[in-house]
Amino acid sequence: MVVAIPDHLLPFNPPTEFFPLRPALPRSAPKGPHVSLTLTPARSVAALALAAVSAVTVGLAGAPTAGATEQDKAIVSDNRTIADIPVVSPIAAQAILLRDARVPIVVLGARLDEDCARPQVLDDRLDAATELSRTHLLNPVIVSGGATQTDCPTEAAAMESGLHERGVTNQVLIEDESDSTVANVQNTKSMISDRGGLAVVVTSSPHNVRALQNFRDAGIEAVAYVGGEG
């Protein structure tokens, strides 16, 4: 089935000077029936968000679906344009979490300061994760980061503590072995796959582009929610 959405219904159309586009790479068609959104590339994320929210409003009556299906991942994948800029979107992140309470919020760690304090870049990520968690209380939060300073707690432990300080009540899952972004991905892959293979990744700009590419290389579809820079 092909769903065509009129231009005037699309709420998000980023200016090309900030989001330069390049043609999407050819992708093989996903197996089985799927929904194809016939849109210009710059508006792909808005369509994804609109479609997801519509599904919740019309067909779900507030209850989560058995989301993160191949159709869900195909929508994210098939409508991607340049190196992940269209899937760095608070609109898409909120819509995906609303659609499926199993989708995890994955917070990527950052090296602690020498006095074991959380750096500003990590607190910014925790603030962003808290924003999502307060709206989506059923979605689990995965904190990922190992011991990167001598005699300090792991990044994951520092993040768990920071989330509790902020009043987050979601289930928090800890991955505390990683020492790089690639390791973050490798060590959270099974947790994400067990929950359907789709994730909202909380990180910083411009780190988000590389992080999402690492997740894709590992076979995980992800949408970024950016908190701060670094």
Summary?
This protein is α/β, with parallel strands linked by helices. It has helices at residues 44-60, 70-78, 90-99, 120-135, 155-165, 181-193, 207-217, and strands at residues 2-3, 36-37, 105-108, 141-144, 172-175, 198-205, 221-229.
Can you describe this structure?
This protein is an alpha/beta fold and 230 residues long. The chain has one domain: Rossmann fold (3-Layer(aba) Sandwich), CATH 3.40.50. It is built from seven helices and seven strands. The protein has a five-stranded parallel beta sheet with strand order 5-4-3-6-7, with helices on both faces. α7 links the parallel β6 and β7. It is globular. This is Putative secreted protein. It comes from Corynebacterium variabile (strain DSM 44702 / CIP 107183 / JCM 12073 / NCIMB 30131) (Corynebacterium mooreparkense).
Name a few traits of the molecule.
single chain; 230 residues; alpha/beta; five-stranded parallel β-sheet; two-stranded parallel sheet; 38% helix
CATH class category label: Alpha Beta
Total individual domains: 1
Which structural class do the helices and strands define? alpha/beta
For the CA atoms, what is the radius of gyration?
17 Å
User: Percent of residues in beta strands?
Assistant: 5-15%
Give the ordered list of helices and strands.
EEHHHEHEHEHEHE
Distance between the termini: 41 Å
In the sheet with the most strands, the strands line up as 5-4-3-6-7
Number of helices: 7
Overall body shape = globular
Q: Quick one: CATH superfamily?
A: HUPs
Q: What is the helical fraction, as a range of percent?
A: 25-40%
Low-confidence stretches: 5-67, 81-86
Q: If you consult CATH, what is the topology?
A: Rossmann fold
* CATH-derived architecture: 3-Layer(aba) Sandwich
Biggest β-sheet strands, sense, barrel: 5 strands, parallel
